[in-house]
Amino acid sequence: MLKPLSTAAFCASLACCVGAQTAADAVRLAYLNPGGTGRFMGVGGAFGALGAEFSSTGLNPAGLAMYRTGELVFSPALRFARTEATLPGAGLPYPESNSAFRLDNVGIVFHSAPRRSRWKTFNVGIGLNQMANFTRSVYYTGFARGTILTTWFNEAQPLFQSDPSGRSLDPFTGGLAFEANAFYPQNNRLSYDFEGNESADLLRTHTIAQSGQVNEVVLSLAGNYDERLFIGATLGIPLARYRFEGDYLERDADDNVVYFDDLTFAEYLETNGVGLNGKFGIIYRASQHFRIGTYFHTPTRWRLTDNFANAFTYQYTDGSGTSRLSANSPDGIFDYRLGSPWRAGIGSAFLMDKKGFLSADLEWIDYSSARYNFTPRSANTAIKEQERQVNAQIRRRYKGTANLRLGGELAFSIFRLRAGISLLGKPEADKSGFTAGYSAGIGVKAQGFFLDLGARTSAGAGTIVPYADGPVVNTQNRVSDILLSIGFKF
Questions:
Q1: Where does 146-228 show beta strands of DSSP type E?
Q2: Residue 392 dihedral angles phi and psi, to the nearest 5°
Q3: Per-residue confidence at 20, pLDDT binned at 50, 70, 90?
Q4: Containing domain of residue 237, as a range?
Q5: What is the pLDDT of residues 449-487, one digit of tens each?
Q6: SS3 of the chain: helix, strand, coil, percent, to 5
Q7: What value does the mean pLDDT take over residues 246-254?
Q8: Average pLDDT of the residues of the chain
């Protein structure tokens, strides 16, 4: 028996095709673990009630008011990421490691001290802080039941019934399978090799490479009123870049499926965008040794663009021999908006004269409040319905959660020793607990010059689902950052 050949003609219509905007994508831009300077990283980011630190412009900008001089600082950094992925029942995990060099922070502070006023300082800060980094690689292989084609087929079948030419099939999924003859007309309906054998045991291999970051340009202003009340505000302009490449392979290693040999599905996505937010903060010096602070970050209003493309290859063997067909999607582009959640926090700090400090911050963020707008400049009922569905998924799958940061510093003459811990609440509604990060650092503070070395490591578990209703892959993730800040006072 020969497989019937499908026609290769189908139109690439983006009018009803949204790129890769999912509930998880919305949370990715909100789940922040800032780097900043070596001092900030060394104490776990617990600077909600402290100041004279440029990274506070991205946390509690009131800390900017505590500068007594101008400052120039920049912070190169290295990131090391390791992911171990395990397909259940496939044996040992597969580790993947990579590293990346980056600039975590660069900033300048301009200091002014008004005369004969209860306002003791007015300071301006301009610079850039890295808020998130997406460097990661994943690899796994093993046997599991099911195929990526089943979801595509269930979506394509009703479309084919209304348009047997295949032009109405999704050009990024089912349309690719139709063109590569993985889906084919048979008896006036759409068919595929897995029909009746959807739970076949297949060998699958998946390779994923992710990169990118969120860097935030900050424009900050802060004032010190009578050495008691410190007030600050920041205009934040975050810049996002995210790149995803995936290569997914299925192979019928045990000849469980008639005709089918193997398939490969390659995905490419690049997201670029710019946002706008405001940060406001207050620090109150209750005494020489004790300070309390509070801050609020408005939602970030993102303007994002996705560029994406997929490729598909299908190999099968029938009575006429082995055939291998490939299909490429059009280049997709999609512009949309995203509102990331607000966040608010409180902090306290105990200062031990010139011997160091202890500090603690508690922060709240509601991940379920993120919202997409897929139709900012047009009216499209189909896309609007997808928007409503994804926003409903965000409300169901995510929750509000707390972040806790604790840190401390000891001072010995010109030398500083630091340590900290950060506990980031898990955003998923069905998960509890925290992802823990541990920090340490050392510093040297001389006349007009300082060096701060900070290091942080964090680990946590996650999952990967290669396609809708696919096998769940478990991951163990560890990320380590090393950062050196070089600063000058003027």
A1: 183-186, 189-192, 201-225
A2: -65, -35
A3: low
A4: 23-489
A5: 999 999 999 998 889 999 988 999 999 999 999 999 999
A6: 15, 55, 30
A7: 97
A8: 93
Question: Among candidates 184, 182, 188, 138, which has minimal Cα distance to 162?
Answer: 188
H or E element at residue 468: none
311 token code pair: 């490729």
Cβ–Cβ < 8 Å for 105, 37: yes
Segments in 142-235 forming alpha helices (H):
148-162, 174-179
Residue 162 counted as domain residue? yes
pTM of the model: 0.91
Distance, CA of 143 to chain centre: 29
Q: Is residue 70 part of a domain?
A: yes
Contact 340, 275 (CB under 8 A): yes
Q: How far is CA 489 from CA 45, 162, 456, in A?
A: 22, 71, 26
Structure tokens given for 50:
């402290």
CB 399 within 8 A of CB 406: no
Residue pair 2/368 in contact (Cβ under 8 Å)? The answer is no
Least reliable range by pLDDT among 34-38, 64-68, 306-310, 409-413: 34-38
323 half-sphere exposure, CB direction, 13 A CA radius: 14
Domain holding 150: CATH number? 2.40.160.60
Name the H helices within 119-201: 148-162, 174-179
pLDDT at 119: 96
Report residue 105 CA to chain centroid gap: 18
**Cα distance between residue 237 and residue 214, in whole Å:** 10
Per residue in 389-416, pLDDT (tens digit) is: 999 999 999 999 999 999 999 999 999 9
User: How many C-beta neighbours within 10 Å does residue 15 have?
Assistant: 8
Q: Which residues lie closer than 8 Å to 37 by C-beta, 6 or more apart?
A: 53, 54, 55, 73, 75, 104, 105, 452, 454, 483, 485, 487
Phi (first) and psi of residue 413, to 5 degrees: 55, -120
SS3 call for 176: helix
Q: For residues 418 and 43, is the Cβ–Cβ distance under 8 A?
A: yes
- Confirm whether 332 is domain-assigned: yes
3-state secondary structure of 9: coil
- Indicate whether 12 belongs to any domain: no
On whether the CB atoms of residues 437 and 119 are closer than 8 A, the answer is no
The Cα–Cα gap between 371 and 122 comes to 36
Closest C-alpha among 207, 177, 195, 194 to residue 325 = 177
d(CA 282, CA 470): 48
Number of domains present in the structure of the chain? 1
Q: Which pLDDT score, from 0 to 100, does residue 1 have? A: 36
N-term to C-term CA, the chain: 83
Cα–Cα distance between 54 and 143 in angstroms, integer? 51
What is the residue whose two structure tokens read 């707008």? 373
Q: Rounded to whole angstroms, how far apart are CA atoms 310 and 328?
A: 6
- Which residue matches tokens 């997914």? 248
Answer yes or no: are the C-beta atoms of 142 and 91 closer than 8 Å. Answer: yes
Contact by Cβ (8 Å): 332, 352: no
